[in-house]
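Sequence, structure tokens passed on for absentees:
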Amino acid sequence: MYLTIKETAEYLALPESYVAALIREKRIRAVSDGEQYLINKEQFNQHFEQLEKAKQLLEIWRNEPIPEDYDVKDED
């Protein structure tokens, strides 16, 4: 499925000008039909999968209990 720059910006929650800049820098693949750029939506799937994995790993890390340090001395 192909998206316009506006639709891609909404899909990625980014400003349209930033998406256009990414296309000019060739960081996003796009084809031109003469009037506008069309961006294949499938190229973002891997990015979103990696983002979800990172969120899961961060959540696991946050929920890991802090081990007790047996070397702590009470200095009261």
The longest strand covers residues 37-40.
